[in-house]
Amino acid sequence: MSSSTVQIKSRVTIQDLIEGVKQLSPSDLNEFILKVNRLHDQKIKVDLTQKERLLLEKINEKLPEVTQQRLEQLQSKKSEGELKDEEQEELLAIVDVIDDMNLERVRALKQLAELRGISVNEVMNLFKISQTPNV
Question: What's the predicted TM-score (pTM) here?
């Protein structure tokens, strides 16, 4: 941070801290936010249990790159009206895999929320999880 200073009491409540942060210049506030976000991310990573790590892996699981590329090819062919019958079946099989992954993702989100004692939305905000699946 630059040379800005904030006057705070020696025993600081959250509200006192907020009042101190209000005194920061816009550039110092941005730097403060970046540092707090980094600290937050570090604390989350350290505080995760093995079960939470596994759930997060499941939540963030993606289609294999080869499958993702094939999905895009098949979708392109379908939109151009050039999809053959066997390709249609292949496309449907990939969509079934995606549906299964999405179901597992929702289950893992629910489990993680229950472990943390917070809502699914709070889990998604806490871990910066996108609302759209990673496929």
Answer: 0.65
User: Measured between alpha carbons, how far is 4 from 29 in angstroms, rounded to an integer?
Assistant: 10
- Tokens standing for residue 62: 């993606």
| Calpha distance 109→86 (Å, rounded) | 35
Helix axes 50-59, 85-116, angle to 10 degrees: 150
- The pLDDT value recorded for residue 59 is 95
Q: Compute the CA torsion angle 46, 50, 53, 59 (nearest 10 deg).
A: -150
Residue 56 sits in the same domain as residue 39: no
Q: For residue 2, what pLDDT band results from cuts at 50, 70 and 90?
A: low
Give the chain's domain count. 2
Domain of 68 in residue numbering reads as 49-135
| Least confident segment among 15-24, 41-50, 124-133 | 41-50
Task: Examine the domain organization and report whether 63 and 100 are in the same domain.
Answer: yes
Q: Where are the alpha helices (DSSP H) in 48-134?
A: 50-59, 65-79, 85-116, 120-126
